[in-house]
Amino acid sequence: MVAIAYFSASDNADAYQAELTRLLPGCSFRRWPDIGDPAEVNYALVWKPPIGFFPALPHLKAVFSLGAGVDHLLTHPELPNDALIVRLVDAGMAPQMAEYALYAALHYHRDMDRYAADQAAGLWQPYPAVATADRRIGILGLGALGSEVGSRLAALGFDVAGWTRSPRDVPGLESFHGADGLEALLARSDILIILLPLTSETRGLLTEEKLRRLPQGAAVVNLARGAILPEAGLLAVLKDGHLRGAFLDVFDTEPLPADHPYRQHPNIRITPHIAAQTLVGPAAAQVAASIRRLEANMPIPGVVARQEGY
Ligand code: NDP
Ligand code: OXD
Question: Region 268-284: what's the mean pLDDT?
Fold first, then answer.
């Protein structure tokens, strides 16, 4: 028997119930806190589950994240040690990420930030064109999302490179890894796109000192987690003009507080964590396929290496 305990304050429970009971006939879908007999529940499907959720479910085989990120699970004080932790792999998010990244890249590549400021100031002044092939884009993280973003930007003719933990080859992209690789990637990134998971290694990674390794006038696009790009450093490099601007979709505290300096900053564009939203159809299909495979003792995609944090 398959019984799934579900919790999310931000997803559509009715839609997940309809999809999963259709894809897994006979499965029992239980919405926290109405979980029935806890001994029967063998899977969890969650986004930011509350305290008390995991201790109430002692027989979980696997905990599925309703997103690609699992920092909300790995920092949960009651996460069970023996259950598999599983993230979504693309599941319809990669094309959305690519659209957002492309929008932000074109914004800076075609000087839309400068023309908007000039329009407000009543100015009429063309800036010199830069060929697409001369615009260097760096992507931190070439996983399910970063590799798709990189491939699509490269297909448009941008000069794209990526940085990963282990050596990785993505066709059409220059690749870097490790600490020296990060220095080299930063030095050649006019536009830096962050698509790393939040782990003990990436938390606070992009300090002011690191941001100053970017070329003068570079821009940053953070699509991953706010804590990877500390606020004080970003504000400092924007203030003295080392960076020209930032697109930020993710923040240390969400919703971003009303009085936060990012809110009114002339060189920062913010969006409310929507770069790639979880789509019920592909997400439920991926979870259902994985449950079927686990029930047949077969391996599944997206299993998190707890030691590595992603
Ligand atoms: P993956 O796990 O598929 O890829 C992670 C990538 O980051 C890999 O290339 C990995 O390297 C690299 N990486 C991890 N740690 C390090 C490190 N210490 N140094 C260098 N590289 C590192 O993740 P996804 O692509 O699926 O997702 C990335 C993140 O995007 C999620 O964790 C989540 O935080 C965020 N996200 C944001 C959304 C939004 O709407 N804003 C929506 C969905 C996700 P390697 O290849 O060597 O393993
Ligand atoms: C995710 C997210 O991790 O929405 O999927 O941030």
Answer: 98
